Amino acid sequence: MKPAQFEYHAPATLDAAIALLARHKGEARPLAGGQSLLPMMNFRVVTPAAIVDLNRIPGLAYIRAEGGTVRIGAMTRHRQVEFSPVIAEKLPLLAEAIRLVAHLPIRTRGTMGGSLAHADPAAELPMVLQALEGEVVARGPGGERTIKAADFLRGMLTTSLAADEILTEVRFPATPPRARCAVEEFSRRRGDFAIAAVAAVIERDGNRCVKARLATAGVGPASIRLRDAEAILERDGLGDDAVDAAAAKAAATVEPQSDQQGSAEYRRHLTRVLAARAVRRARTVQ
Amino acid sequence: MAEPVTIRLTVNGEAREGRCEPRKLLADFLREDLGLTGTHVGCEHGVCGACTIHVNGEAARSCIMLAAQAEGAELRTIEGVAENGKFHPLQQAFHEKHGLQCGFCTPGMLMVALDFLRHNPDPTEAEIREAISAVLCRCTGYRDIVRAIAAGAAAMRKTAGPG
Known about the structure:
Order of helices and strands of chain A: EHEHEEEHHHHHHEEHEEEEEEHHH
Low-confidence stretches of chain B: none
CATH class of the largest domain in chain B: Alpha Beta
Distance between the termini of chain B: 53 Å
Order of helices and strands of chain B: EEHEEEHHHH
CATH architecture of the largest domain in chain B: Roll
Number of helices of chain B: 5
CATH architecture of the largest domain in chain A: 2-Layer Sandwich
Mean pLDDT of chain B: 95
Number of strands of chain A: 13
CATH topology of the largest domain in chain A: Uridine Diphospho-n-acetylenolpyruvylglucosamine Reductase, domain 3
CATH class of the largest domain in chain A: Alpha Beta
Strand order of the largest sheet of chain B: 2-1-5-3-4
Strand content of chain A: 25-35%
Structural class of chain B: alpha+beta
Radius of gyration of chain B: 16 Å
Helix content of chain B: 25-40%
Number of domains of chain A: 3
Oligomer: heterodimer
Strand order of the largest sheet of chain A: 4-5-10-6-7
Shape of chain B: globular
Strand content of chain B: 15-25%
Low-confidence stretches of chain A: none
Largest interface: A-B, 30 and 37 residues
Structural class of chain A: alpha+beta
Number of helices of chain A: 12
Helix content of chain A: 25-40%
Number of domains of chain B: 2
Shape of chain A: globular
Mean pLDDT of chain A: 96
């Protein structure tokens, strides 16, 4: 189908874009990469009165490592992340996950900020935001605020962004060199949204697990941290029994839904299998 | 009706201009306003890949871009792939390896493969299969498409020469 009618704005500054969103009082949508918004408009699932195209605003696409933080501009395309040596070095989990985000011709257009603000429950980037304990920067008429991952992702396609706020930047703490990361995902075809996925970040000291971070995609209304499973690893270490116990806890924690791609029970099963695989891969000393 | 927008852009090296509603999809603008019907429209929601073109040198799906977004852009469509009436080596390989049956997905296959091979000029079969997972072929001719891309890549490496 074709989109319903809308007013089209392509402002040259962030302030102008925010003013347009405020003026339309929730009836306007910001357009970043458009790889989720345009399909929804073509289906007329969303029929915004106005589109505020962010692609003409300079200075929103960058990847910068400063101190222990990696800052990624909201309009940075997935392909830039995919080929970035900074990301490969500082955020290996993101480097691995970005290759699982849709297909090549989607990654050329899709953006970091757009994917997070869309908050598809099966998307990889919200899972990465959770696992790496990232935060987003949002700017609105009242100024700027930072929102932590857990406070940002509120539910199915829902974030804590206000209708007149624009996500401008994503910040991740650089992953320490001794940490190991893994993403395990199951989908029908490579490039499809995950039926289930688990990301793991493990820091070990000998046989002790100093820090474990586990997060999900596809197995609930929003990506969540698997804190109880993390606690098992941090308490009991990285032996096979502890990994299996953590994976079982992960499966018990998630609240998946059934759809045509798989039942809730199947997704719960996948959560256990993928959590165990992710931790086993991430515990390996290189 | 929303105010029409004027779009000036470069398509296959030629300056073009059009005027349309803001809601017009780039794929429809290419086909209906610029008469470039080589870009095919299948699913209209970014799944089938038939409408893939190059936007500023990178593969993108023209059914999930607005024409208005292409203001000032450089586009390349399937019409711009052959040079001087002669097939591009990748097109030649599709011809020789029977890389198409009905031909509906072929423009998308070629445009994705061209961007893919730019970054990975000597791909494995698995990498080719992953790359073309972005385009659906309902004749299920994938085997010959994979062969065609491998052969086309080899021909392109030869044409490009060392360095």
